[in-house]
Amino acid sequence: MDFASFGIASVACITVICYLAATAVKQTPLANKWLPSICGALGGLLGLAAMYINVPDFPATDPLTALAVGIVSGLAATGADQVIKQIGKGN
Question: What's the pLDDT at 83?
């Protein structure tokens, strides 16, 4: 079994698009306050779009799962950055 059978490539694409959106949001007054919410919502929309346009090997076949996969992918785009910031504040 290879990674392509899990739809990893399409999920990674959602994460990369959301990360790009996060870098754009950081340049606005919204900054970090709304960053996870924006990336999660964008990821959810992209997950639904991927399911409805039949992206090959996308790991969801129903709207709820597609939404969840998208939200998690969107939040993953900001997660590592936020974890590093939180660890830095603890010192």
Answer: 64
Q: From CA 56, how far away is CA 84, in angstroms rounded?
A: 34
Which pLDDT score, from 0 to 100, does residue 10 have?
A: 81
Structure token digits, residue 73: 């992918």
| Residues listed for the chain | 91
Q: Exposed, middle or buried by CB within 10 Å (0-12, 13-18, 19+), for 41?
A: middle
Report DSSP letters for the chain, one per residue: --GGGGTHHHHHHHHHHHHHHHHHHTTSTTTTTSHHHHHHHHHHHHHHHHHHTT-TT-S-SSHHHHHHHHHHHHHHHHHHHHHHHHHHHT-
Within the chain, which residues score under 70 in pLDDT?
A: 1-7, 31, 80-86, 89-91
Which has the closest alpha carbon to 51: 39, 61, 43? 61
pLDDT at 91: 52
